[in-house]
Specification:
Length: 595
């Protein structure tokens, strides 16, 4: 890679505090980082990207499997041999005038059976410091890899002695004497995965999901391929612990599309009445779960990440106090506003907006100027260990045993507040057909349901039909499977008012889920699954929430469900002949029950 990319220097990253201080200071000097007020945000920095490099680029993300059908209808496929030729040209000399950083990193605790070691080569110091927060990174990982390769390490992780090569460049070589820019990138972007050889190449972007290759690229797209071959699952799921007053703990994995409150649920604080009764929640992870059939007969899960790469706008003490506590120090902010006293600000933050700030583009900003201060996809990168509710088992190599898996989307109608699948395969069907109603800003047609199977639409690294079949297969490999549920916090009245208060009150739904898992709630059979009865669902203390309110938020409308079933059929048709027959049968059974 050195011969191909021709950097001026090569540095092996050791993950030390000294390295962090040197690289962050270097970026402050270059203007890439602004050091925030050390009294308000100790060891925190602000970065501003260029307006063309602010998000994942799904249309430039490729799965280069040998067989075109390996990518399936939800991915962009490219021929691996042709893509290698194209990328070799792109990477030729691309690091001229820059330093090449070699980042040894591990996704998951080093001693976990699922741990995956990667080595990311990059010419971005921004990537290095973010990877230090988001992964196990540094000399200890390299040492473990060397010991494995030499045969002196005993831990037999899946992939023992091997690593996933991850090549990244911002694609902005410098000629001698050429001045650098604060956020180098290239308009021509490629985020490329080679599932057959387990390789990742990313060119042209410096932004998180495109450049921090341990995250979506390795931990989901490549890992989903490894998982399929080795009978485990790489999922876009939060992991939360629910600690009941009787001393029992139930762990739940939950998959939601973007903008459906995933981080809020992962960091949920129970209402005061629950806290007084002795309930507690804990966070194992907020974004990705690796799940495998454990020898104890249940499914176990680890969070392969060590940090949060969260969306800043809308995060506030009134929506997610634990996230706000997690980002007080040692955090990198990207594309948020900068206040005059050296702090950060974004839309939706608590209190009044500042009278003046510097916005994410570096311009002066005032509340009435007609522009947003922070980009809608502005981010914080924060160490997970700083979350006050971090679970004591969050780094347990053996993971946590899952009691339940929860699916959900943002639906103004049709979907009740909560219901339970009849069995595992019915649960797979519920996950496969889940979706959210589009908002005007996001994807175009207002109100149309955008299917997002298991919240994996942009992240499944192979054919989605094979992915559904893999879920069904996993159901045969464990003797005590998690119970599967679907939730919808977002139902509205005909007048457009929320039917359910959401946020911390979602604990009431989680309590019913726990009670179902423990056999303490009977529920009632409906056409879609098992729903709670009003008597067994705790509504005490929700102002104005009556039995009529409960019935409304749980109601099933036949006409709406007929439209839902038609929409599912449309999605299934797009999956093609790899759609498992079991899912066709599940849809037919639901249609018959609804008739």
């Amino acid at each position: 890679m050195t011969a191909l990319c021709t950097p001026d220097a090569v540095e092996w990253c050791d993950g030390s505090q000294a390295e962090w201080e040197r690289l962050t200071s270097l970026m402050v000097e270059k203007g890439t980082f602004t050091r925030l007020n050390p009294e308000k945000r100790p060891n925190c920095f602000l970065a501003r990207s260029t307006p063309s490099d602010v998000a994942r680029v799904e249309d430039r993300t490729f799965i280069c499997s040998k067989d075109p059908s390996g990518a399936g209808p939800t991915n962009h496929w490219a021929d691996p041999a042709e893509m290698r030729v194209k990328l070799t040209e792109k990477f030729k000399g691309c690091m001229k005038g820059r330093t090449m950083y070699v980042i040894p990193f591990c996704m998951g605790p080093l001693d976990s059976p699922l741990a995956k070691i990667g080595v990311e080569i990059t010419d971005s110091a921004y990537v290095v410091v973010n990877m230090r927060i988001m992964t196990h990174m540094g000399s200890h990982v390299l040492k473990r890899l060397e010991e494995e390769a030499a045969g002196t390490a005993t831990n037999k992780r899946d992939g023992f002695g091997t690593f996933v090569p991850c090549l990244h460049s911002v694609g902005a070589p410098l000629e001698p004497g050429q001045a650098d820019v604060t956020w180098p990138c290239n308009e021509d972007k490629y985020i490329v995965h080679f599932p057959d050889t387990r390789e990742i190449m990313s060119y042209g972007s410096g932004y998180g999901g495109n450049a921090l290759l341990g995250k979506k690229c390795l931990a989901l797209r490549i890992a989903s391929n490894i998982a399929r071959d080795n009978n485990w699952m790489a999922e876009h799921m939060l992991l939360v612990g629910l600690h009941a007053p009787d001393g029992t703990t139930n762990y739940i994995g939950a998959a939601f599309p973007s903008a459906c409150g995933k981080t809020n649920l992962a960091m949920l604080i129970p209402p005061k009445s629950y806290q007084d009764a002795g309930w507690k929640t804990s966070i194992v992870g907020d974004d990705i779960a690796w799940i495998w059939p454990h020898e104890d007969g249940t499914l176990h899960a680890i969070n392969p990440e060590t940090g949060y790469f969260g969306v800043a706008p809308g995060t506030a003490y009134n929506t997610n106090p634990l996230a706000m506590e997690s980002i007080k120090a040692n955090t990198i902010f990207t594309n948020v506003g900068l206040t005059d006293d050296g702090d950060v600000w974004w839309e939706g933050m608590d209190g009044e907006p500042p009278a003046h700030a510097i916005d994410w583009t570096g311009q002066d900003w005032t509340p009435g100027c007609g522009r947003v201060c922070a980009h809608a996809n502005a981010r914080f990168t924060a160490p997970a260990v700083q979350c006050p509710s971090i679970d004591p088992n969050w780094q347990n190599p053996d993971g946590v045993s899952l009691s339940a898996i929860v699916f959900g989307g943002r639906r103004a109608s049709t979907m009740p507040l909560v219901y339970q699948a009849n069995d595992w395969n019915h649960g797979v069907y519920i996950g496969a057909t889940m979706g959210s109603e589009m908002t005007a800003a996001a994807f175009g047609q207002l109100g149309k349901v955008r299917r997002d199977p298991m919240a994996m639409l942009p992240f499944c690294g192979y054919h989605v039909g094979d992915y559904f079949a893999h879920w069904i297969k996993i159901g045969t490999l464990a003797t005590k499977l998690p119970q599967v549920f679907h939730v919808n916090w977002f139902r509205k009245t005909a007048e457009g008012k929320w039917m359910w208060p959401g946020y911390g009150e979602n604990m009431r739904v989680l309590e019913w889920i726990v009670n179902r898992c423990q056999g303490k709630a009977t529920g009632t059979a409906t056409k879609v699954g098992t729903s709670p009865t009003f008597a067994e669902f705790n509504t005490e203390g929700i102002a104005g929430f009556t039995e009529d309110s409960f019935n409304a938020v749980m109601a099933l409308d036949s006409a709406e469900w007929q439209a839902e079933i038609d929409g599912q059929e449309e999605f299934f048709a797009s999956v093609g002949d790899k759609l498992p027959a079991e899912l066709t049968a599940q849809r037919a059974a639901l249609a018959a029950r609804m008739a």
